[in-house]
Amino acid sequence: MADITRRFGWRHLRSAPTAHIRHHKRGELVHDGRGLSFWYRSLSAALSEVPVDDRELAMAFHARTADFQDVTVQATVTYRVSDPALAADRLDFSVDPDTGSWRGAPLEQIATLLTETAQQHTLDVLARTPLAEALVDGVASVRERVATGLAAEPRLPATGIDVVAVRVVAIRPEAEVERALRTPAREQIQQEADRATYERRAVAVERERAIAENELASQIELARREEQLVDQRGTNARREAEEKAAADGVRAEAEASRKVRLARAEAEAARETGAARAEAQAAWLRVHSEVDPATLHALAATRLAENVPRIESLTLSPDVLTGLLAKLGRPEGGPGERAEGRAGA
After folding, report:
1. pTM given for the model
2. 246-250, 326-330, 340-344: which is most confident
3. pLDDT of residue 337 exceeding 60
4. Are 318 and 333 spatial neighbours (Cβ–Cβ below 8 Å)?
5. Is residue 79's pLDDT more than 70?
6. Cα–Cα distance for residue pair 132/310, rounded to 1 Å
7. Which pLDDT tens digit goes with each residue over 231-271?
8. CA quadruple 311, 313, 318, 324: dihedral positive or negative?
9. Alpha-carbon torsion 223, 228, 229, 235, what sign?
10. Residue range 154-207, pLDDT digits in tens
11. Is the pLDDT of residue 15 over 60?
12. Phi and psi angles of residue 304, each rounded to the nearest 5 degrees, phi first
């Protein structure tokens, strides 16, 4: 929208670079172009402002497919006014000289023209297309058909309008139909998820089985090694017992040999001692056999006196004293004679 200011009964208009201004005064074209700025009188001026920039027109309408299913089509058409003079002649782009606002609704007329034309071509395409195909390939076919139909529409060039681009955003069925259509895919996805879950569980079970087999193999190997260890320990114990028995045999043989040698030595010593004693006894007997009996008696008495306990007093009868004196070679005493003596051990 152009900026209009007032000064002393005059009006000043300043337009944007994307707006084409046409100024008529008394039926004659005074100003014509983009981004103009000029003074004018409102009572004698006729102004038109035609936007020449690209404009986006969003549209949504219902259509029916070949299998009688209602769908909603969302599309966007980009257009622009390529011939402002022709557009101003065919459509009411006049503006109020005092406010600069449009007197009519030219953009709405263009939107209605484009929407109805696009809807007509869309309905023509979808009416021959089943719902499933329309949901899969309908966007491309509808976009191509609408672009071709708008380019061939004779009213658009006659109005000075060029279609820049056509975009079909979506083709959607009704909510219930959409849910029904989603069900098979959802079930398939669920089946795939279940299959993946089963496969994952199968893999987990297989891994657990492998782990169990490894553990069992480890236990078997451990048992085998324990068996080998027990066998080795038995072998070692037997070898140790054999070695110990051999050592005990050697020790016993050595001890027996030592005892035999000792016994032989003791026997030899005893034999030699006995021989020495026998020789000594024989010499002693030989010496005593050669000595006078009286001397032997005296020696016996002396030896007896050495070995008997101490006698404080001794009483001898006359018979004993007589015999003793007789043996000692002394004269006998008279009968009834008593002798007293003391001896010390």
Report:
1. 0.53
2. 246-250
3. no
4. yes
5. yes
6. 154
7. 888 888 888 888 888 888 888 888 888 888 888 888 888 88
8. positive
9. positive
10. 989 998 999 999 999 888 888 888 888 788 888 888 888 999 998 999 999 999
11. yes
12. -65, -40
Residues near 303 by beta carbon (within 8 Å), at least 6 away in sequence: none
**Pairing mode, strands 37-40 and 10-14:** antiparallel
In 82-208, DSSP assigns E strands to 94-95, 161-173
CA–CA–CA angle 140, 144, 149 (5° rounding): 150
Q: Which residues, other chains included, contact 273 with Cβ-Cβ below 8 Å and sequence gap of 6+?
A: none
Q: Is the pLDDT of residue 56 over 80?
A: yes
Instruction: Tell me if 65 sits within 8 A of 132, measured CB to CB.
Output: no
The strand pairing partners of 323, in sequence order, are: none
Rounded-to-integer distance, Cα 319 and Cα 336, Å: 9
- Contact (CB, 8 A) for 54 and 79: yes
Contact 60, 50 (CB under 8 A): no
Angle at CA of residue 185, ends 182 and 187, nearest 5°:
105
Measured CA to CA, the distance from residue 110 to residue 59 in angstroms comes to 13
3-state secondary structure 159-184: HCEEEEEEEEEEEEECHHHHHHHHHH
Query: Quick one: 15 exposed, middle or buried, by C-beta within 10 A (0-12, 13-18, 19+)?
Result: buried
The strands making up 161-173's β-sheet, listed across from edge to edge, are 55-64, 70-81, 161-173
Tell me which of 335 and 12 has the higher pLDDT: 12
Strand partners, 311: 343
| Token pair for 339 | 């002798």
Cα-Cα-Cα-Cα torsion 77, 83, 87, 93, nearest 10 degrees, comes to 90
- 76, β-bridge pairs: 58, 167
What is the token pair recorded at 234? Answer: 């038995």
The pLDDT score that the predictor gives to residue 250 is: 86
Which distant-in-sequence residues (6+ apart) come within 8 Å of 225 by Cβ?
Answer: none
Tokens of 9: 């009964």
Residue with tokens 């000029």: 38
